[in-house]
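Notebook, p. 212. Picked up where the previous page left off. The plan for this session was modest: take the two constructs that came back from the sequencing core last week, fold each one, and keep the raw output in the notebook itself so nobody has to go hunting through shared drives later. Recording the first one now, exactly as returned: residue sequence, then the structure token string.
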Amino acid sequence: MKKQIVVALIVVGLGIVLLAGVKYLQISHAISAAAGHQPPPTPVTTTIARQEIWPRDLEAIGSLAAVQGTTIAAEEAGKVVKIYFESGSSVALGAPLLDLDTAVEEAQLKGLAALAEQAKLGLKRAQSLRQSDTNSEADLEKAQAQAQEAEAAAEATRAIVARKHIKAPFAGMIGIRLVNVGQYLAVGTPLVPLHALDPIYVDFSLPQQALPSLVVGQSVNVALDAFGDKIFEAKLSAMNPQVDLATRTIQIQATLANPEGTLRPGMFARVSVQLRESDQVIAIPSSSISYAPYGNSVYVVESHEEAGKTASLSVSQETVKLGRRRGELVAVLSGLKPGMRVVTSATFMLRSGAPVTLSEGPQPGSDPAPNPADT
């Protein structure tokens, strides 16, 4: 029995040794095969780093404002008897807009005018009597005061009548009327908006650091979402003399021609103030940048030539210092030289020394002033 157990143990031991040998040979073969295997080159798109001249500009967000704009309101109480304008029409300076009922005031004015005329006649008699020394100086002064008081009362009523005939204080475009014929208005009731649209203002603010670069008359480019990629040219026309204490910004106003009246107050605007200076930069698409907390980098394509063989391509990772952006481009301040071929896609799949091939696929955007279709 003992002999049989010993034989069985020997057989099991030999089986284990044989199995371990087979596995060792398989693993060694796999390691050797992996050591000789090279991953296929990664297809990438590239661009040549070029030196460009970028004009310096200051960008801000602003809004359009009317040169003159107000909501006309009733200065006197009364009932609306006539409306002269149509909503959305243009009016000239002094054009009649609306009449309130003036029957009571005009009747009062007739009585006051009669009293004023009577007071004038009394003044003339007092002056004539004074010349003949028939009355006293006090009588003349009293007649003068009565004449002036009567005339002032008549003028006050005339002013009330005039305020009830409401006219346009300036030329512009009328908005939607807010009252109707027959409606009784209290003092201060809004009647209709009125805005002068040509020219139109662009109001925006910039940090106080920009103040030395700003000059009245310099060009300002204005982009409006409502007009797609169209750029409007304005001129810087005014700056506040004081910097805002809360935000440390300065309020600025530019003037924009609007002969067709298509631009309206309140529109959102993107503003770019063009400065006289410019910078020479190396510009590449922002998709080329691999961003990391320890430093940003790009992959540069290198060519390796061997005698009798086709040149192979690989990439090396270069740390770069970035400057300002302009649309889909970013300026590189250091780490690149003009003429270097930079990878613009599939950077997340690369490592330094990885083989690559140049792809003819779609190139990433490199527009300095993109206008996405969904904006």
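Okay, moving on. Second construct, recorded in the same format:
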Amino acid sequence: MAKKKTLFECQSCGFQSPRWMGKCTSCNEWESMIELSTEQIKYLKETASTSNISTMKAKPITQIEEDNITRFTSGSTELDLVLGGGIVPGSLTLIGGSPGVGKSTLLLKIAGNLARVSKKVLYVSGEESAGQIKLRANRLEANHDNLYLLPEINLSTVISEITNQPYKLIIIDSIQTLYSEDTPSAPGSVTQVRTITFDLMRIAKSLHIPIFIIGHITKDGSIAGPRVLEHMVDTVLYFEGDTNSDLRLLRGFKNRFGATNEVGIFEMNKEGLNDAKSMAGKFFNKDKLQSGSSLTVIMEGSRPIIIEVQALVSEAYGHAKRSSTGFDNNRLGMLLALLEKKLDLPLGTYDVFINISGGIKVNDPSADLAIIAAILSSYRDRELSSETLFLGEVSLTGEIREISSLSQRLKEIETQGFKKAVIPNKASEKTAIKCFIADEVSKVVEWM
């Protein structure tokens, strides 16, 4: 008798193995290997062996004409900013985020905005009934005749609806709930997600219709399904922010039609997820600062944002703890080691906790100086001036290095009514802000 062939596939990353493993060697996920059936193995082999022979020939790049990308607005200034100026026809966009962060709310709001201006929009939901979506649409004021709802999980039915009507936008909520009858696998599996995404991409490009896909995320914060899912789409957006806070951040991680350094900021209220009107005072306390708090300006794309850094330094009982929320924990350890080395502070016997106010995550190295200022303020139990901001990247040698967009940051500081700033280099433009130049960490103490 012929030996039965077995194949196991990881449901987190799509890695395949001829034998079962408790831990996937590709993504290190536990208990994610599932045995594929004989039909699934046959389908994978047929898919791999079937290829369309193209008659296209290579051309010199000098003979290729540029594509004229025309965009149209989504009705949301913040979403247009993240997308690079608006929605591109024929694009495939993936939006991920934790449950309850506002993915469905935002896209239903966008669908209502486009339907209001006489654009036909199809909202496909495999998780909610049409009645449930109707209730949310009432709250978002998205009830318009050009907004069509389709509670369906069969891909063939969805494709038939798309091809029979001249829709200007398609929303899929969510990609893990759809299934294709041609794929012998359960909905949400790696094979299904890969096949459905490819079919949706083909439809978006051939019919020139933009498609937005909502994707679930795993416990480590990444979009569920194979990593090839993020490679197949044109744009990948992630929602960030604490669900207990009203503020939400939409960050771009991939964009074939624009930059990926822009961030959209939204506010959750009774009317849904709306554009944040102003960032003044959203991420810092306007009143007098307490000990352990300092202010700085970070750049989120082309937008300067003033944030408050909070630090708590207390005597440790046993092993000293280092913890940070919204800031890289490894970088915090580096800054603490630097303070012990340069300023002879016995921080090895103290617990140090860092928090970025407002639930924002800081990746800008210019916040290093503010982190150090907050730690010193808490350690000495002395308040810092509420009119002074700290800007600068700190190196391992204790040197405070130059930062980008300094003039733009100082302009934001001046607009918000602050008077002073500790900076690593002189501003290239004249400013009303009184700037203190600090080139070493030891000099920061002089301004506190």
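Notes on construct two before I forget. The chain has a mean pLDDT of 84.
Flagging for discussion at group meeting.
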